[in-house]
Write a structure and sequence with these properties.
about 220 residues; alpha+beta; four-stranded antiparallel β-sheet; about 35% helix
Length: about 220
């Protein structure tokens, strides 16, 4: 009886090991693990996986909303689209710990850039630059959601503010902007040197950040 139980246990261990190796080295798991942080927890990995389809839908929705005004205008210029994946890991000089995330879609025609964004699970309310201004204050900073010029590894000068609409709990919402880029800004966009960031009362220097990249 003991020998039979031992054999059964060994068989179950072998089967579990086989299944683990098969899943670990499957193409799908390989892609997921390649994109996941090395120290990610099981709970956060599961949550990120369950959000994948919704995230794709949000990207598509933001890109469609950004492209629509340009199509309606009937411009002859081609439309080039960009996306920015916003994360606390992208904050410079030091990443911040946050469960918040955001997605920005942008459409460029000539020098006109239309931006549409969405965000969720902020740790705190957006920074209010009327009561907590920069020193010296900048009257063009009318919200906590900004376009900046700079590389992924540096903090660069403010360029534009987005118009922000918060949801009922004030920790998520949407944003929009429509800008005429200068030649320098247009070159920066094409060189991957325009980024988006979001500032909150807890993380005044930025809770979310992502570079605009071709979609």
């Amino acid at each position: 009886m003991f020998r039979e139980r031992k054999n059964l246990r060994n068989s179950l261990i072998a089967l579990a090991t086989c299944l683990f190796v098969t899943v670990l080295y499957s193409p799908i798991m390989g892609r997921v693990m390649a994109q996941a942080p090395a120290a990610v927890s099981a709970a956060s990995w599961s949550a990120a996986s369950s959000d994948t389809f919704a995230l794709g839908e949000q990207i598509d929705a933001n890109l469609a909303a950004a492209t629509a005004p340009l199509l309606a205008q009937g411009l002859n210029e081609p439309i080039v689209t960009y996306i920015a994946m916003l994360s606390g890991q992208n904050i410079v000089p030091k990443a911040v710990m946050t469960d918040s995330r955001g997605v920005v879609g942008a459409a460029l025609s000539g020098n006109r850039l239309v931006v549409r964004g969405s965000f969720r699970e902020l740790t705190s309310a957006p920074r209010d630059y009327a009561t907590d201004p920069l020193d010296p204050p900048n009257p063009n900073i009318t919200s906590a959601f900004h376009v900046h010029r700079g590389s992924p590894s540096e903090n660069g000068p403010f360029q534009y503010a987005l118009d922000v609409t918060l949801n009922a709990n004030g920790r998520g919402g949407s944003a929009m902007g429509d800008y005429t880029l200068t030649p320098e800004q247009l070159q920066a966009l094409q060189n991957g040197m325009l980024y988006i960031d979001f500032h909150t009362t807890r993380y005044r220097a930025g809770e979310l950040r992502g570079i605009l990249m071709p979609a």
